[in-house]
Amino acid sequence: MPRLKSGPKSSLEQSALSIPRISFSRLSFTSIEQCLTGGFPAGLRGPSGSDADQRKDPDVRKRLSGPALRTFFRIMEEWELTVSEQCGLLGWIAPSTCHKYKGGNIGTLSYDLLTRISLVIGIYKALHILYPEDLLANRWVKLPNTHPLFSGRSALSVMIDAGIDGLYKVRRLLDSRRGGWN
Asked: Is 173 inside any structural domain?
């Protein structure tokens, strides 16, 4: 599988658009995920210097929207999720909106949608670090789990049923198992 080149990127667009179809387990992730979670390159900080100010900026959200959705749909293909499950992860958007996004008609995503996509990317990354075998890493979200967080249910059902809070819980669990957010 191809690997991303390490080193600083000259702009948000360049780093976000340069993500090929890869396994995140072999990646020092410094592009979409960091941008979506607030780790912006220093050149994108506004006059206040606050990342939160930038994440709420419609221009920044517009630049992130296309690359974020393309990455999200690649993950959905690998996880083999239905359109209904994809809509659930995105906060129960309409299936027609999901198909519109898949077709490339994106526009500017909301802060909430970008946050959800960021959490999914982080979950995918953590799974591929914890489980180097791609088949297990990609199937894990659908497998029943005995951890108290899941109570015998799959991570996917928790992420969909509990909404953004479920996404955060699964992300935190996986990140704690792999040793952190970096």
From this structure: yes
Contacts of 173 (CB under 8 A, 6+ apart): 147, 149
Answer yes or no: is 18 within a domain: no
What's the predicted TM-score (pTM) here? 0.73
Spatial CA neighbour of 40 closest among 62, 60, 58: 60
Phi-psi region of 109 (alpha: psi -120 to 50; beta: other; left: phi over 0): beta
The CA-CA-CA angle for residues 17, 20, 25, to 5°, reads 115
Q: Domain total for the chain?
A: 1
Residues 55-87 pLDDT 10s: 789 999 999 999 999 999 999 999 999 999 999
Q: Which of 15, 32, 35 is nearest to 74 (CA)?
A: 32
69 inside domain: yes
Rounded to whole angstroms, the maximal C-alpha distance in the chain is 48
In a domain, 80, yes or no: yes
CA pair distance 18, 9, nearest whole angstrom? 10
The reported pLDDT for the residue numbered 5 is: 37
Q: Which domain holds residue 139?
A: 27-178
